């Protein structure tokens, strides 16, 4: 166990020296594995065992069928975006909500939620929406605090509402069903939108000048705006419905595996973008290129994480934690509270994926040994990660906003984010106390066609 | 030297194109598989093994490029600190160099595994594609990535002006 803790500390140190995470985890994982197997880092026998594990991990991960959902879902998000989706989603939400006080910020939150349904990344959601929503909120005289905060917070929904890259990685690390994880993310994601809408209302109630009402759109405009997004809405229902088993009836008998859902989604998004004239050969190439770069970076990190987690398991850290909790007779909800606390602290420093990769191998065995549902824990982890994205001092989404908008200080954004952060804590409490919110949809899964 | 680097950058477009083609193929194949299976009850039987191979191609073909461009996921929390003490260049050089050297052993090991698969005559289930091709591919591109990172690291340390094309 000492070896594992030392290894963990070295990884943290190397990462802070800006060594890419894959190399930090890979190096420590390999040397640690050699140490556990051969008695010392330099032992030949240990090194041989470690290298053999690394080689196998590389070839296996690179050819893992289940992982093919990652590039395909990234591709889907990028293609849909090429079709001008972010703008249209925003136009729809604005047509329905814009006339209320704070309505344009509320529309931003809703559009972020919608965009999350086709994009699996929080940072991408925040970056895309800030380009679309920020000018509009400025035009109506919204305060910088409210406008930037609504995008930064709304953007966090990207990793919870399916498809979600983080949930895929969690599913692969813990051998939990990715389809069920996706289903489990839907209600907490919808709650996220609802709570954020309350946060906007609260902000404008405190300071009416921060979010004046926009112009009311007539029903004609509203229907017209809806017309532009129907194809993408259909695509979302096809992908998620197919995963859920909603089309599993005669004569269709169609149920998607996550890979198939992702392939259908990507192809559908490609066709939509193509039919709208949003794609040229060059831009198609750009999208494919960006996807393969992102996928390669994700796969590398994943390989590093698996090497590291093999070492952690061999060193017996998860068992030691379980033994400790049993010996001191710690109540299980205290354990959960402590884990949540650790996540929020780590989240202040780490980017969401690396945090997940470092911690899940350690905490997952403990949490499941206490009798908690693996799917529920996955959603809890993602919600905590979302919170970390808007928590000072290094809430990444806040920095994305700062990067895109430029002339607003991070202090202002963090100040505006506070009500959203509180809304998140309420949501987290709800999910922890009422696991039903998470588990009701996955438990229904596949039961529909019968 | 600058001409050589320029040439290498142009050359690196080829594996990127290969990765893009693999990804596009993966998308179209998955789509066709679902359609053929559900409407005509005739799935593409080799889809699973082709998916595995395409994935390895797509990930490893771009590995040298993302490695040399520093696109690996990293934590930039201490950037300000390094910049203040003018240590950024030294740090980047050492990080690239160290990472590149670290990649040599996995590349060698995957090669050993590939050779073993070749000895055993391992092939895929439906199309009988020899498994060691994938191993060779991974070895080759991991080795190129290692080399690219070592060279980038050395350039950072000794000839930073040659890297300027990448940071205009």
List the helices and strands and how they pair.
The complex is a heterodimer of chains A (450) and B (168).
Chain A lengths: L1 H15 L4 H18 L5 H19 L6 H14 L2 H13 L5 H14 L5 H18 L4 H13 L8 H10 L3 H29 L12 H26 L13 H18 L5 H34 L2 H11 L4 H16 L4 H18 L4 H16 L6 H10 L4 H24 L2 H9 L6
Chain B lengths: L1 H10 L1 H28 L6 H15 L1 H6 L10 H6 L3 H33 L11 H27 L10
Helix pairs in contact in B: 2-3, 3-7, 6-7
Can you describe this structure?
The complex is a heterodimer of chains A (450) and B (168). Chain A has 450 residues and is an all-alpha fold. In chain A, 77% of the residues lie in helices and 0% in strands. Chain A is globular and about 75 Å long. The mean pLDDT of chain A is 86. Chain B is mainly alpha-helical and 168 residues long. Chain B has helices spanning 2-11, 13-40, 47-61, 63-68, 79-84, 88-120, 132-158. Chain B is elongated, with a radius of gyration of 20 Å. Chain B starts with a helix and ends in a 10-residue tail after the last helix. The chains are: A mainly alpha (450), B mainly alpha (168). The interface between A and B is large, with 59 and 57 residues.
Number of helices of chain B: 7
Straight-line distance between termini of chain A: 49 Å
**What percent strand of chain B?**
under 5%
Number of strands of chain B: 0
List keywords for this structure.
heterodimer; A: 450 residues; 0% strand; B: 168 residues; mainly alpha; 74% helix
Summarize the structure in short.
With 450 residues, chain A is mainly alpha-helical. Chain A has 20 helices and no strands.
